[in-house]
Amino acid sequence: MRFDLTDLRLFCDVSDAGSITAGAERSALALAAASTRIRNMEAVLGAALFTRSRQGVTPTPAGRAFLKHARTILGQAARMREDLSAFAGGLSGEVRLLANTNALTEFLPEALSSFLAAHPHVSVDLEERLSDEIVGLIAEGVGDVGIVAGTVDVGALQTYPFRSDRFVVVAATGHPLAARGAVAFAEVLDYDVVGLERSSSLQRFLTAKAAREGRPLKARIQLRSFDAVCRMVESGVGIGVVPQTTAARAARTMSLATIDLTDDWALRELTIVVRAADELRPYARELVESLRA
What we know:
Blueprint: H1 5-17, H2 20-26, H3 31-45, E1 50-53, E2 56-59, H4 61-85, E3 93-99, H5 101-106, H6 108-118, E4 122-128, H7 131-140, E5 145-149, E6 158-172, E7 182-183, H8 185-188, E8 193-196, H9 201-212, E9 219-223, H10 226-234, E10 240-243, H11 244-251, E11 256-261, E12 267-274, H12 282-292
Parallel strand pairs: 3-4, 3-5, 7-11, 8-9
Antiparallel strand pairs: 1-2, 5-12, 6-10, 6-11, 6-12
């Protein structure tokens, strides 16, 4: 039974993406080459590794077992590469960091800039995910380090405090909510909302919260950044839900009202999560220390 690291990386990428096409793109392989590699792996193993459907692919029981071993082997290969790179003049490699929208947009640009400046041979693969998704992916070994909302159950993962923030409502100064000091999220659902694009973890989170209230989120327009949301809110298109740090920064140059959200989930204690600190590769461990600082 012979598989190379490209096979294993492709299998993990396809499993994570839920699509052979997307997995091939992540592995920088042509679709035909990726499909051939997967068929060859299945032929060697004598078992189907994926269940295929119109929605994409999911690992079969054999595929899930294969995925666990593939992640272990790729992790060991990365650790070997990093350990040996020390003999060639310093650390080099990549750390995969998973973060929710709040951490990614408000805190990580500054936090990561100092780390990357101090480690010119290390790159960071940063991906936005929902907090509960991040917990599962870190536990499975898909990511090295995660940053999640402190309200999620992290199971057996090790945690470290990162930052604190809270979500607030922003509205144009003439909006009916502008004079309010605080509102519940249920009241937000009465109005048009300016939000982030559908794929953002925060937008999916707010849509799920609205569904629990038994009502839709009236997304009038969806944009790519919190700053763009605030500019659109200022023009009177709708109201927005953004981090308090964003609202305070925007209020210095825009005519906006900031209204507190009374829901418990609005307060965001952001937490760093790892599977096991003693299993982290040196540069991933240094990233955690840098983020904590």
